[in-house]
Design brief:
mainly alpha; 9 helices; about 65% helix; elongated
Amino acid sequence: MPSFTIAGWGRWQAITGYPTAPWLVEDGAQNIVHWSVQMREVISSFVASFFAAPASKKLRVTQRKSDAHVEGRTAWTSFVSANWKSVWKAQDIIDATLKEQSCGPYKAMGRRKSRNLPTLERAQVHKAYPFLAYALFGEDSAANATATFLKDNVQDFLERIMACMWNRYWKNLNRERVKMVELQATVKTSWLARIRHYLASSDKLITLLKRYNDPESVKQIKDQRQQICTMIF
């Protein structure tokens, strides 16, 4: 969840379409979701509790099921979920940036010559953080002129969001590996079945051609079979 400061940065505003934090926008042309005054208040209260919590407890604040911020938490989570991928395209931005910096999941596995996704730390995805920060927040995300270091709130945001993204990659890759094994079995079975069918059919054809005294066609079929056997074996 971007902080109050981040919500006012130009690049993030361009991505989300909001001139400031959504819960601060009063009803009108800029209130894209048209929250009521009461809804903005409960969301603002939840967000304030999130930022007031120490870093080690922020995740718990977002996951609690029963406290004074249930309504605000639910509304905010639904809002972000509805916009993050399809409207803001934030997921696409992160995917593309990781790929450009050779920090995506497939590159991470390729470097280790493994089909298992390494942990976020082992994949050294932090090397892409400055580029992710610029893609999402622009120059405002840097803590120094050369953009070597990131502001604390940007670092915190990227660490949380990348933990979620890496978990998504892990789930997707697990499904891909299962599908890959299934397809390999299907292709192998289909290939063997076709070869057997071809050999059986060509045997029958050769028998018929011999009956009709057609040695030239028999030789042609046998040559084809030999070519196939050579390619396969």
